[in-house]
Design goal:
The structure holds 2 protein chains of 2 kinds. Chain A has 8 helices and 39 strands. Chain A is mainly beta. Chain A is globular, with a radius of gyration of 22 Å. The two termini of chain A are 35 Å apart. Among the domains of chain B are: 33 residues, no CATH class; 61 residues, Serine Threonine Protein Phosphatase 5, Tetratricopeptide repeat, CATH 1.25.40. The chains are: A mainly beta, B mainly alpha. Chains A and B meet through loops of A and helix 11, helix 13, helix 14 and helix 16 of B.
Chain lengths: 591, 491
């Protein structure tokens, strides 16, 4: 029987500091006195910690002279606590090599599961436990989604690929069992990003899987750049294939409800998906980024079906009305007005598209790419993984984009590897009215140029700020530590929330799909939605992090559980992870 | 905090000298070099941006020859502005803007009174996202030729992109007063109004742009969004739906300089694009010429073969169509479109057996090819293999949701299999969007309801079918429907 890893109550304190011996504490205590006359030094917020944590994974794209399209698409990664010990582990998807109709003798994907030894070691060090874990198989690896499919408290994985999708159930003992076929997930097409969310609010996490195009090695087309040299094809050279929606019946079976749910009524070359309540009715919807075609906004009709509303909502296209690339997608309340906004990454010379939710339950959005300056400052970037996160813990969501070119047209001519680009960090300024691109001089990690693809967020070192995992196509995966909590005198305050849902009340164990609001007097309520999806091919830690800046008090936390229950927690303690258990049915009002 | 240097400066070491202040600086440097005793030509060469390093390997052979010829000429006569500019144009026609830019910068410095170099420099910078640099260059171009509409439109666009809304609006205002009126100017004003969050004003401008060019996709879309912002969701939905099929439709903009750039393109891709454009406009012979030229330059352009199979087939030149089929088969035997297009050709030649094989081959290669399922189903339906045909129609619909013809034909089979109740939803799914085809589908639906004894619904759909048939002047169909309606209403 899987071990139930749920906490009895709060988990207090910060992990790394508890292990320091007394002498070190004494010296640490003296430091502010010794340096009190020195002016605070502004250090970069982000630091490359790849080497120090022992991360040596290099993605294999299996590139050939044929320029098969999957070779340029990269793969994703996940930050999730697979062993329930309180720190985040890493899962990295590998590509491998492409073969048509035969299993490769060698060169199959070598996905990696890396255990974080922060607890109990006190320091983030990664140990490769892939061999024991059993996360093997599949075709040419693409993406990963994370969710607790059986509500046993531990997190399971879906790995997408050019080839069969794999559903790995976490056995709770460091191993996984592949159950895709028996669970009804039998898709061998080219699938990309995926999202676990309980769309029908029955307490079981369902699954939305995006699908890309009808590529196969046998039907591979040769494409050319404007110069006439061979180049990777664009998705327009292939036919799009439809996404799939699976309903989790709660008995180990995922039922394909694509057609009956209405998802089959629109198709596009899907690359990114994010779930969220985009029209404020309490039910989760899906937004899909399609590559070179209309993006899709699936609005939950609360009866098991969805209607596609992207065009009228204003999120099918950017303001010019023309489809853009559409690779990565992220949802978050960047202007702190209580609703979920969207951002989609696109190709060089398109600029990212920022859709501001107009709220009021309309489900309508405006294209704010130019006004926010993000469109302008991303004009030369081909963006993939992307995410809203509060890098400086000031309570306003910032944005990180993982960039890298896909065709020679947009690549850097004359360079050894012309597809490399810089990643970008956009700081939220003027309270969501605009963003400022951070320069490489301010953040040296942004100097490096690679073919970045996946991006996941999580507090790897449990110090209260969100760190980043970046995957690179045919290159090394990287960990960037967020140093906000150690960057200057007067560290900003923070609060992390881990929800414990009650499946008996039709709520999944990790509370995915819930909304958490943080109220402080005189300041806008910070709303965050609980999820692990979004970005590109990647999965983030489902815990919710709030940056509080200089605030030393939080009046109230409001938790809107997926089953409609609303719970409040007054005056929570700060600078810690708070585990909030769903109360028994007798408590509170419903939504 | 260290201020990041501007992109333009960083990418092209001396391009910061191309603005007016920079040129003054360059002039002083030139003077200094001359005073230092350097020969004039060498002195000038010192202050110019370096010529780009061009990797000829990247170009297909004929294009490579073209680029190398011009590059050789420039290196022999590096101070000739026309040659420098021409190299930029040749590189730009193959979308190599990073390489074209320094060529234009050189030409601009060598011939500062030549409009085209300032203009093309502005275009290149805009493509590279260097909005401020684009604005500077386009302004300078307009000082040299204030009458260039293309430069004014591009400047207004660059100003908007750089957040300089007031100036963009002022320029577009002036452009709206010219004759003939310019839809782009009204669209530009609409964009500024949208940015200022004044949807009513924006809607007015977009409407005017659409009046001037009804197929203006971007304006139609923007008007839909503006209407929605004004709370008129129903009207917004209509405009947005109108915009969808016209996404890339724009009003023409007379631009002789860029036309000259486009005409320099010798690449296979360009000929292919022209061939496709000719075909879309119904100029099949021109289309053939361009496609054949594309293949001559790049025999690997299988898309050209595919298109020629279709075009020759339509012209009744089966032999030539088959030649292209065989040529493509030799290059890429597993392209589903290849077998599909060949199948369509064979149907037109009444070689049905071979056509069936071609569609089957398509499905072997690509089992989800909706049109191949559809066409194969049509052929086997004729042989009476109804259940099998129904299965293929269903597969076509599975791959292509909303495939109207497949829904209709599946519905028809179900009626013929005496399963009219199952046919109803299939016919219903074929009705939208309402157009001339809907007349036939609505007729079928009405007839099916009649067969089921649901007279009211039958009359409803027959009336709809009749209305559509008469609207679209489908007289024989309208006559049949009218006859059936009379029978039904007499009952």
């Amino acid at each position: 029987m899987p071990i139930d890893r749920s906490d009895a109550g709060e988990m207090a304190g910060r992990g790394p500091r508890r292990g320091l011996p007394p002498l070190v504490w004494l010296l640490v205590g003296l430091l502010p006195v010794l340096s009190s006359s020195a002016s605070p030094v502004e250090r970069p917020l982000l630091r490359d910690g790849t080497e120090e944590v022992g991360l040596t994974f290099v993605h294999r794209a299996g590139e050939t002279a044929e320029l098969y399209l999957p070779e340029i698409m990269g793969a994703g990664g996940a930050l999730f606590d697979f062993d329930g010990d309180g720190d985040l582990d890493l899962f990295l998807v590998d590509g491998g090599t492409l073969r048509d109709g035969e299993r490769p003798v060698e060169g199959g994907p070598r996905h990696r599961l890396l255990r974080n030894d922060l607890i109990p070691g006190g320091k983030v060090r990664l140990t490769d436990v892939s061999g024991k874990a059993g996360l093997v198989g599949g075709g040419y690896g693409m993406g990963v989604a994370v969710g607790d499919i059986d509500n046993d408290g531990d997190l399971d994985l879906l790995v997408t690929s050019v080839g069969p999708d794999l559903l790995f159930r976490n056995n709770g003992d460091g191993t996984f069992t592949e159950v895709g076929q028996s669970a009804g997930i039998r898709d061998s097409r080219w699938t990309t990003s995926a999202s676990f969310v309980d769309y029908d609010r029955d307490g079981n996490l369902d699954l939305y899987v995006t699908a890309y195009v009808d590529f196969s090695v046998r039907t591979h087309k040769r494409c050319y750049a404007p110069t006439g040299e061979p180049d990777y094809c664009t998705p327009a050279a292939h036919r799009p294939i439809g996404d799939r929606l699976y309903r989790n019946r709660g008995d180990g079976i995922f039922e394909d409800v694509t057609r009956t749910a209405g998802i089959a009524s629109a198709i596009g070359p899907g690359l990114g998906v994010v779930s969220g309540d985009f029209n404020g009715d309490g039910w989760p919807d899906f937004y899909v980024a399609n590559d070179g075609a209309a993006n899709l906004l699936w609005i939950n009709q609360k009866d098991g079906t969805f209607l596609e509303r992207g065009l009228l909502a204003g999120v099918a296209y950017a303001m010019t009305g023309v489809p853009r690339a559409g690779m990565g997608v992220t949802a978050g309340d960047y202007d702190n007005d209580g609703d979920l906004d969207l951002l989609v990454t696109n190709l060089t010379r398109e600029g990212f598209t920022l859709f501001r939710n107009l709220g009021g339950g309309t489900g309508f959005f405006d294209d704010d790419s130019d006004g926010s300056r993000i469109g302008r400052d991303s004009f030369l970037s081909t963006g993939f993984g992307v995410g809203w996160f509060d890098v400086d813990l000031d309570g306003w969501l910032d944005l990180f984009a993982a960039n890298g070119a896909v065709t020679r047209l947009v690549a850097r001519e004359g360079e050894l590897d012309p597809f490399r680009q810089r990643n970008q960090l956009f700081r939220n300024e003027e309270r969501g009215a605009s963003f400022r691109e951070v320069s490489p001089e301010e953040e040296p990690v942004l100097t490096r140029q690679e073919i970045s693809r996946g991006l996941a967020f999580g507090d790897l070192d449990n110090d209260g700020d969100l760190d980043l995992l970046i995957t690179n196509n045919r290159g090394p995966a990287r960990v960037l530590f967020n140093q906000t909590r150690r960057s200057a005198a007067g560290d900003p305050h923070w609060l992390a929330v881990r929800l414990l849902g009650d499946p008996g009340q039709r709520t999944n164990r990790w509370g995915m799909g819930a909304r958490v609001g943080l109220e402080r007097k005189g300041l806008p309520t910070l709303w965050r939605h609980v999820h692990s999806d979004g970005s590109y091919l990647s999965a983030s830690d489902p815990r919710t992090y709030f940056g509080l800046g200089a605030s030393t008090r939080v009046d109230r936390l409001v938790i809107e559980w997926p089953n409609g229950l609303v719970q409040t927690v007054t005056n929570p303690l700060l600078d810690r992870q708070l585990t909030i258990r769903q109360p028994p049915p007798a408590a509170r009002q419903s939504k | 905090m260290v201020k990041r240097p501007g992109k333009a400066w960083r990418r092209s070491g001396l391009s910061r000298t191309n603005d007016r202040t920079g040129r003054v600086g360059a002039g002083l440097l030139l003077l200094a070099l001359l005073l230092a005793g350097l020969p004039a030509g060498e002195a000038v060469a010192q202050i110019l941006p370096a010529l780009p390093a061009i990797d000829g390997e990247r170009f297909e052979p004929e294009v490579r020859a073209q680029v190398e010829a011009v590059e050789r000429a420039v290196r022999q006569t590096p101070l000739d502005p026309a040659l420098n500019g021409r190299l930029g144009m040749v590189l730009q026609t193959y979308e190599q803007y990073e390489l074209a830019r320094p060529c234009y910068e050189r030409a601009r410095q060598l011939a500062p009174k030549e409009f085209r170099w300032a203009y093309l420099l502005g275009v290149a910078r805009a493509e590279l996202g260097e909005r401020k640099g684009a604005i500077t260059a386009l302004r300078e171009a307009l000082e040299l030729d204030p009458t260039s509409i293309a430069a004014q439109v591009r400047l207004a666009d660059s100003l908007f992109g750089a957040g300089q809304w007031e100036e963009s609006a002022a320029l577009n205002e002036r452009l709206t007063r010219r004759s003939p009126p310019l839809p782009q100017a009204h669209y530009g004003l609409g964009r500024v109004a949208t940015a200022r969050r004044d949807p009513a004003a924006a809607a007015g401008h977009y409407r005017r742009a659409i009046e001037l060019f009804p197929g203006y996709g971007a304006a139609l879309y923007a008007l839909g969004i503006a209407r929605r912002q004004m709370g008129e969701s129903a009207e917004a939905a209509e405009w947005l739906a109108r915009a969808e099929p016209l996404q890339r439709s724009r009003p023409p903009l007379e631009d002789p300089v860029l036309r000259e750039v486009a005409e320099l393109n010798l690449g296979g891709q360009q000929h292919l694009r022209r061939g496709i454009a000719h075909e879309a406009a119904g100029r099949l012979m021109d289309s053939i010429t361009e496609h054949e030229r594309a293949l001559a330059l790049n025999p690997g352009l299988v898309q050209a073969h595919l298109n020629l199979i279709s075009i020759y087939g339509r012209l009744g030149e089966a032999g030539k169509a088959e030649e292209h089929y065989r040529a493509a088969l030799a290059t890429q035997p597993n392209l589903p479109e290849l077998h599909y297009n060949y199948g369509v050709l064979l149907v037109s030649l009444d070689r049905i057996g071979e056509a069936k094989l071609a569609f089957q081959r398509t499905l072997e290669v690509e089992p989800t090819y909706a049109e191949a399922h559809h066409n194969y189903a049509v052929l086997i339906e004729r042989e009476g293999r109804l259940e099998e045909a129904a299965s293929h129609y269903r597969q076509a619909i599975g791959s292509r949701p909303g495939y109207r013809s497949a829904h209709f034909l599946l519905g028809r089979i179900l009626v013929n299999l005496s399963r009219p109740r199952e046919a109803i939803p299939e016919f219903e799914r074929s009705l939208e969007p309402e157009d001339a085809e809907t007349a036939t589908y609505a007729y079928a639906l009405g007839a099916t309801y009649a067969r089921l004894g649901e007279r009211g619904r039958a009359i409803e759909y027959l009336q709809r079918a009749y209305r559509l048939a008469t609207t679209h002047r489908l007289t024989p169909l309208a006559t049949r429907i009218e006859r059936d309606l009379q029978v039904l209403t007499r009952q």
